Structures are given as structure tokens and as C-alpha cells.
Amino acid sequence: MVSTLWALAATAILPVAQSHFTFVRVSVNGVWEEPGRYFRNKTSPFVEPATESEGYIGYYHSPTFPQHLPNSLRCGRDSFAHAAETEVLTVKAGDTLEFAHTRIEPKDWKDYQWYGCPEGRGSCDPNGTQWEVPYMEFAHPGPVVAHLSQVPDGLDVRDYDGSGEWVKIYTLGYEFYHDDPDRIIFLAHNYTGRPGRIIFDIPSQTPAGEYLLRVDLIWAYYKDSQRVSGGYTQLYPSCLQVRVESAVEGSLPAGGIKIPENLCRDCPGKLISCLQSLSSLEAVRSPITMVGMLVGSGMYGGQGEPDDDYVYPGGLQWDGEKMFEVRPPVRPSRR
Ligand SMILES: [Cu+2]
User: Fold this and answer.
1) What is the pLDDT of residues 24-56, one digit of tens each?
2) What is the pLDDT of residue 310?
3) Cα angle at 288 between 287 and 291, to 5 degrees?
4) Buried b / exposed e across 50-68, counting CB within 10 Å, b at 16+?
5) What's the rounded Cα separation, in Å, for the pair 79 and 75?
6) How far is the CA of 316 from the centre of ligand 1 (A)?
7) How far is the CA of 173 from the centre of ligand 1 (A)?
8) Locate the Auxiliary Activity family 9 catalytic domain: which residues (predicted)?
9) Which of 136, 102, 96, 66 is nearest to 283 (CA)?
10) Which letter does DSSP use for residue 116 in this model?
11) What is the CA(19)–ligand 1 centre distance, in A?
12) How many Å apart are CA 13 and CA 10, to the nearest integer?
């Protein structure tokens, strides 16, 4: 059954109800949990101070922009306010997780959007208006990344705001469409109407303890255009509250990122937080470059040529043994 807590929590009416999306469901080793369960909820509607002057009101599935509140960028809009009411999912290091998203408002959730979906998927839209019914298509092209942030000693995950380091454990990026060097295809939103699946393992060397597990699709904004209202890079973060059982003790490796600080590459002074540097809209309109978060038109549209200097967002990735950079595919040679 759909969680009544979630259905009641979001009562806002969004005119274009299916234009955006939220990751809301997890499966552990192939078994789907109830939609919404173990995820920090969001507040809807919610006004972000940084965009209040533009009249921005974030509804349930609305994107989060880089200039929004740190808490909104970490785990979704105003999500820390919902931490205490969120259950904690117990998993084992090495378990395989899959994440599913929806574009439907919680008040409109029906069992047929979650149960009996094709290919054992965790969400679908049998009565939808999207390209390839019954699939639940992603609304936007971009990479999907997932991170773990370990809860500091002595703290409960329900009391942790995500201000520590985040270590990337998953990247779903792009490929070249039929080896065409001038046409990429993101594997999540791929223009087939049949979305890529978000499946990865919790590294088997993950130390025992409590974590926030963040998953996000980042639709990078077009770097050469005017950054007009509503046109910023869009993030779609959600966090699971998890307790990892493991034979390993200790901490995650160093070298993770801070959110939002290290979502920026060339923030002024490097050590100044992204939030500070983006605290006014003027700053947002200045030429700040973010790793994988401002791109050329081919990547913005998700079916053109890639940027030569593109770096996947989210920092180094950990496979349980080493930290490494996930490199985009090599561009095929022209034939
Ligand atoms: Cu959207």
C-alpha cells in the first residue's frame, strides 16, 4: 500500500504535475519496499530564500537549484524537517539496491503505479501521457549519481543534517548513440521513453553504521545562455536513511565531497562555500563553473555532442577499495 503519511504530506496542486520527478522507492536485493518508506520527505510548497524574489515556489517534484538551501540540495526541499518521522532501512554491506522515481504527486499515487510494473520495475505509469506507456520516464537528460554520508559518532541518522562528507558510490552517465561521435545518450533519460534502471551495490567494505544514502539526477544547465529565472541547473536529490550491517568497522575513505560546497569547481577562493558564493542572484549570474553542472547545448539537450572537458558531477567514486574518477566514454572516431 502507498504510505498514507506521504499521501497526506503533499497536498499542493501543481499545474504541470508530471514535468518533474522524485526518487521515492528502493528495492533491496530485488525486493521493492513501500513507496516513500525510508526516504526523507519534502515540504511542498516551499519557498527557497535564494529565489524568493523571483517568486519561486518549490512544489513536490520541482527541481532544486544550486543556490537553494544546503538542506534542500543534500536530501530534497526542507527534508531535514522530515528526518525524525522517517524510518531507518537496515541493509548489509554488499546488498544490491535499485531506485525508482515517480512524476506523479503523492496525493495521486495509486497501487497500479507501483505494483505489477513491467520487468519488475519499481514504478510505472500505465495510464500516463508519456512516450512509452506504461513506463515512468525521467523528465530530463543527465547523469544519476549516488553518495553515502556516514553519520558522525554518537548521532542518530534522524538527527544528522548531511553536513559531513559524501562519498560517491555510483554514476550512471552517457554513451555514444550508435557510435556517433556527435550524439550522446544519457542512460537514465535516453529518448526511448523506457528509462534506464538505477541499480548498484553498497560496497561490501562499507563500515557498519548509519548513513544517509543520496541519489540524484542532475540536469546541467546550458553554460552559454543567460541564466534566466527557472533556468538553472536542476537537481533531484532524495535521501534514504540507512543502517549498514557490516563486518568492517571504521569510516568511509577521505576525499568525499561536501554538499553544497563541492558541487562547485571554481567557486571563488575554493574554500568559500558554494552557498556563500551563490548567496545572491547576482552571484548566480556570474560565470561560476560547476563540475558537470554547466554544459554545452549537446549535453543540455542530451542528444548532441559532448563537452570535451566534461567531468561527471559528485567527486571521486569509491568501489570499496579505491577512490577514482569515473571517466566519460571515449569519443568514437569519425568514419
Ligand atoms: Cu523538471
Assistant:
1) 999 999 999 999 999 999 999 999 887 777 788
2) 87
3) 135
4) bbeeeebebbbbbbbbbbb
5) 6
6) 26
7) 18
8) 20-276
9) 66
10) S
11) 5
12) 9
Fold exhibited by the domain 4-324: Coagulation Factor XIII; Chain A, domain 1 (2.70.50)
- Taking the centre of ligand 1 as the mean of its atom positions, its distance from the CA of residue 140, in whole angstroms, is 6
Which residues of the chain fall below pLDDT 50? 1-17, 228-231, 265-289
Integer Cα distance of 68 and 150 in angstroms:
23
Cα(130)–Cα(18) distance, rounded to whole angstroms? 9
φ and ψ at residue 90, rounded to 5 degrees = -90, 125
Does a cis peptide bond (omega within 30 degrees of 0) precede residue 332? no
Cα-to-centroid distance, 18 and ligand 1 (Å): 8
Bridge partners, residue 215, by sequence = 146, 238
Amino acid 323 reads M
Cell of 194: 523506457
Cα 55 to ligand 1 centre (Å) = 17
pLDDT for position 209: 98
